[in-house]
Amino acid sequence: MAWFKKSRKPIEPASGKASKIPEGVWVKCPGCTQAIYNKDLAANLQVCPKCGHHFRVGAADRLRQLFDAGEWIEHDPGLASTDPLSFTDTKPYRARLESSRASTGLQDAIIVGSGRVDGHPAVVAAMEYAFIGGSMGVVVGERIARGIERALADRAAVILVSCSGGARMMEGALSLMQMAKVSAALARLDRGRLPFISVLTDPTTGGVTASFAMLGDLNIAEPRALIGFAGPRVIEQTIRQKLPEGFQRSEFLLEHGMIDMVVDRRELKATLARALRFMSPPALPEAEPAPETESAGAR
Ligand SMILES: [Zn+2]
Question: What is the pTM of this model?
């Protein structure tokens, strides 16, 4: 026999009636665990107004935040992967592409566009994490390389916002080649004396960190972003040592000289504008008008 007896009936379980609040109106912040009104979050560039936690931003939103008046001309939106290796892991790569295309409305994990950033002509590329982890395959590499070439032709600056799990393993060695291709294009940009600013957001890892993300004339990271090549578990197993607190986060990398600045997203555009003002090339000299007195004298 039980020592205690429940004299009252247990409280009735919640009825099936759904809450009146539609899903997604409130977001729980992983930084401070407080509930934030979704519209407040959007108005604050997806940064928690209470603790400053930076939520991940999609590629289109990112471009909207950076370009003047939120306007840009997109380049090569139609480029799409052809699954060159007919790759299958737990499911076929083609099926992964299809579902990512359907959920993001993009052909691949990046948007590249031209426009103006605080009046400065710029080509800005933003990676889309929702598309197969923002991985860099042939299409991502090709679009970035073409964007850089366009910047060279237009004498524009290049700003690359990384948000990526690294190279796309479903395209094997072809995706690794993009590291060299983009790096070579950036070298041409450098010879053209045009600025390249790399913005590293959470997460920037693998082949993206190992190539263009760390090649900026200025490397700017968002606060608390995970930035690294291999993950901490792999490193710990390799070196057989415990990693220090905050390892591979923006602030740690800044302290150790791997990046130049950690900038709050709400300050990002102003910081980019200031950097572009400082780094932008002087305008090409215009054809000098013939001095009047001289031409008059020659006649
Ligand atoms: Zn918060």
Answer: 0.85
